[in-house]
Design a protein that fits this description.
GO molecular function: RNA binding
CATH class: Alpha Beta
Order of helices and strands: HEHEHEE
Helix content: 25-40%
CATH architecture: 2-Layer Sandwich
Protein name: Ribosome assembly RNA-binding protein YhbY
Strand content: 15-25%
Number of strands: 4
Domain CRM: 1-96
Distance between the termini: 13 Å
Number of helices: 3
Radius of gyration: 12 Å
Keywords: RNA-binding
Length: 96
């Protein structure tokens, strides 16, 4: 579980990132979760965009992705979800 200080740090790190995944009207599926899991292993921190035509609300989308990938939700802002998962091999971020 992330502390408030860690979440603030991750939000500042994620500020300049562009979303690399988009959740559309089909919602979250296994294939997407696997791709996000791989991307998290490489990057540790990434943004997912929830499109307007998505049938589910962004909070449940964030929950599903976080559960499926064992990642932490650092922030949900607008239609963007910021996810963090410590990498086993490509550790880049040092949490405060």
């Amino acid at each position: 579980m992330l502390t408030g200080k860690q979440k603030r740090f991750l939000r500042s790190e994620a500020h300049h990132l562009k979303p690399i995944f988009q959740v559309g009207k089909d919602g979250v599926n296994d294939n997407m979760i696997n791709q996000i899991k791989d991307a998290l292993e490489k990057r540790e921190l990434l943004k997912v965009s929830v499109l307007q035509n998505c049938m589910e609300d962004k909070d449940s989308v964030a929950e599903q992705i976080a559960e499926g990938t064992n990642a932490e939700i650092a922030q949900i802002i607008g239609n963007s979800i910021v996810l963090y998962k410590e990498s086993k091999e490509n550790k880049q971020l040092q949490l405060p």
